[in-house]
UniProtKB/TrEMBL annotation:
Residues 81-102 are annotated as: Disordered. It comes from Kribbella solani. It comes from the Bacteria. Residues 3-78 form the DUF7508 domain. Pfam families: DUF7508. This is DUF7508 domain-containing protein.
Length: 102
């Protein structure tokens, strides 16, 4: 992802589109979650990111709009696993594990 990291605040989320796409959440130690906003996500990327607002202080995010969100999501998770040897922490993950994913 090439978009810069932004602090996870309501003001910054106001500029995020309600579109399909993928996003990463980080804390000071690095990426802790990779998720997507799909066709069933209320308010798209903005709606999915809003779930993280009260998770804990000091989080940052970046996102990428894409209609190929499932492919891009898998690509980002696999790249993270290759680099770190395990998937991200995913503390706020709901039902985003896809069939065939580990």
């Amino acid at each position: 992802m090439i978009r810069p990291w932004l602090p996870l605040t309501a003001a910054n989320l106001a500029d995020v589109p309600g579109a399909l796409g993928v996003f990463e959440i980080s804390d000071p130690s690095g990426v802790i979650a990779i998720e997507y906003a799909g066709g069933h996500s209320s308010f798209g990327l903005r709606g999915r990111l809003e779930r993280w607002l009260d998770e804990r202080p000091g989080l940052s995010f970046r996102y990428e709009r894409t209609n190929s969100y499932l492919s891009r999501y898998r690509e980002l998770v696999r790249a993270f696993e290759n680099e770190h040897g395990e998937p991200p922490e995913q503390p706020n993950r709901t039902d985003q594990r896809l069939e065939g994913d580990r």
